[in-house]
From TrEMBL, chain A:
Family: Belongs to the peptidase T1B family.
Keyword Glycoprotein annotated: no
CDD domains listed in its UniProt record: proteasome_beta_type_3
Subcellular localization(s) per the UniProt record: Cytoplasm; Nucleus
Subunit structure: Component of the proteasome complex.
Keyword Amino-acid biosynthesis: no
Keyword list, A-Z: Cytoplasm, Nucleus, Proteasome
GO cellular component, one term: cytoplasm
Function: Non-catalytic component of the proteasome, a multicatalytic proteinase complex which is characterized by its ability to cleave peptides with Arg, Phe, Tyr, Leu, and Glu adjacent to the leaving group at neutral or slightly basic pH. The proteasome has an ATP-dependent proteolytic activity. Component of the proteasome, a multicatalytic proteinase complex which is characterized by its ability to cleave peptides with Arg, Phe, Tyr, Leu, and Glu adjacent to the leaving group at neutral or slightly basic pH. The proteasome has an ATP-dependent proteolytic activity.
Pfam family for this entry, one: Proteasome
Gene Ontology BP terms: proteasome-mediated ubiquitin-dependent protein catabolic process
Name used for this protein in its record: Proteasome subunit beta
From TrEMBL, chain B:
Listed PROSITE patterns: PROTEASOME_BETA_2
High-level lineage: Eukaryota, Viridiplantae, Streptophyta, Embryophyta, Bryophyta
PANTHER family listed in its UniProt record: METALLOPROTEASE TLDD, PROTEASOME SUBUNIT BETA TYPE-1
Gene3D superfamilies: Glutamine Phosphoribosylpyrophosphate, subunit 1, domain 1
Subunit structure: Component of the proteasome complex.
UniProt key word Nucleus: yes
Organism name: Ceratodon purpureus
Name of this chain's protein: Proteasome subunit beta
Family annotation (Pfam families): Proteasome
């Protein structure tokens, strides 16, 4: 199996009306063996910024530790939280540092700008940023996720409806992927 | 054909490892202890490449002792597991340690905990887990028979069932097992077991 599908993962982030939602599956597996059903893939950077990391679990944990460190240092120096675009650039730079020996994870960044407008973006494993106006997906189930999101998504959804849409899109896609699933977690901000 | 498994009970964690030390087709030793007591209330079960296994578990043990000497208090189980994960992760892209680990500990404030740490430094807190070839059998047995908050007697019955399954259904199964426990009174050896003899009968019945 390929290295990015060793542990299995599925992530979505969606934009709503002055809100965003980010969701992931909870399975941690080793090839086809399931180890845990409560693995954390979405991490809070600050109150209005979340990052979801798909791919190899060890790199998910390493990236989270490195990004948390950099953000805490930023907070100490600048005495404020990082803006989502800035954080996305930071993630991209950290990933590209390892261009010829990369971290095998594909992050999704979701946050609210200072004016309350939602921001989502994804990068590939070497830091190529991709901004989006509606939704971004990542993980082994990404092909199903694209299909499900494309058909279920509507612009300007409120928080409750957005929660329903993102949950249904996640659950229906991971049901078609044997190495992701075993539950889901959704954060709506 | 190693196996390492562990699970949480009511106020304790049991860790079981096989005691065989093999080199290709030769059984060099049948009384090898693969579970290290890191400090008074922590156990590190470690299987994998023999040199890495001994070197890495001693390295972690000495580093945790150093922390305690310098700071006057021992690390919590989560902190020790995170430290171990970082050592594995740093070495991963240079000279990886080929060891799979189950770390168990008892903290005064949070009680017993068990951590799974595989050779590529994936850390996960678990209630029950297994590593090695034996895991293919043990995980299914634990899925069926494990209950939360088991007492020691029930826990040992579950250990019996797991050892029986590996002994009967795995080719080249280990000759013996070592069972260690960690609870509020500390980390200690519970018992050593041999391979289940056929006369003893099936503990599943």
């Amino acid at each position: 199996m390929s290295i990015t599908s060793y542990n299995g993962s599925a992530l979505i982030a969606m934009v709503g009306k002055d809100c965003f939602a980010i969701a992931s599956d909870r399975r941690l597996g080793v090839n086809f063996q399931t180890i845990a059903c409560d693995f954390q893939r979405i991490f809070k950077i600050h109150d209005t910024l979340y990052i979801g990391l798909s791919g190899l679990a060890t790199d998910v944990q390493t990236m989270h530790q490195r990004l948390q460190f950099r953000h805490k240092l930023y907070q100490l120096r600048e005495e404020r939280n990082m803006r989502p675009e800035t954080f996305a650039s930071l993630v991209s730079a950290i990933l590209y540092e390892k261009r010829f020996g990369p971290y095998f994870c594909e992050p999704i960044i979701a946050g609210l700008n200072e004016d309350g407008t939602p921001f989502i973006c994804t990068t590939d494993l070497i830091g190529a940023k991709q901004l989006s106006k509606d939704f971004v997906v990542s993980g082994t189930a990404s092909e199903s996720l694209y299909g499900a999101c494309e058909s279920m998504y509507k612009p300007d959804l409120g928080p409750d409806e957005l929660f329903e849409v993102i949950s249904q899109a996640l659950l229906s896609s991971v049901d078609r992927d044997c190495i992701s699933g075993w539950g889901g977690i959704v954060h709506v901000v | 054909m190693e196996c390492l498994f562990g699970f949480e009970g009511n106020g304790f964690v049991v860790v079981v490892a096989d005691t065989s030390a093999n080199q290709s087709i030769v059984v060099q030793k049948t009384t090898e202890d693969k579970i290290t007591c890191l400090d008074s209330h922590k156990l590190l079960g470690c299987i994998g490449e023999s040199g890495d296994r001994v070197q890495f578990s001693n390295f972690i043990q000495k580093n945790l002792n150093l922390y305690q000497f310098r700071n006057g208090i021992p690390l919590t189980t989560l902190a020790a597991a995170s430290f171990t994960r970082c050592e594995l992760a740093t070495a991963l892209r240079k000279a990886p340690y080929q060891v799979n680990i189950m770390m168990a500990g008892f903290d005064k404030r949070t009680g017993p905990s068990l951590y799974y740490l595989d050779y590529i430094a994936t850390l996960q807190k678990l209630e029950k887990g297994a590593l090695g070839f034996g895991a293919y059998f043990i995980l299914s047995i634990m899925d069926k028979y494990y209950k939360k908050n088991m007492n020691l007697e029930q826990a040992l019955q579950l250990v019996d069932k797991c050892i029986w399954e590996v002994g009967t259904r795995m080719v080249a199964s280990p000759a013996g097992y070592i069972i260690k426990i960690v609870d509020k009174d500390g980390a200690r050896l519970l018992e050593r077991r041999g391979r289940p003899a056929e006369e003893h009968g099936d503990p599943m019945e």
